[in-house]
Amino acid sequence: MNVPISTNLRNGLIADAIVLIKPRITLLALITAIAGIYIAPVRPDFYLFFYALVGITLLVAGASALNMFLERDIDGFMERTKDRPLASQRMSPETGLAIGSVLIGVAIPLLIYQVNPLTGFLGLFSLFIYVLVYTPLKQKTSLSLLIGAIPGAAPPLLGWTAMTNRIALPGLILFGIVFFWQMPHFLAIGTFRREEYAKAGFKIFPLKQRPSSIKFQTLFYTVFMMLVSFSLVKTAYAGNLYFWAAFLLNSGFLLVVLWRIWEKEDHVWGKRVFFASLFYLTLLFCAIFLDGGLHEV
Question: What is the pTM of this model?
Answer without folding.
Answer: 0.90
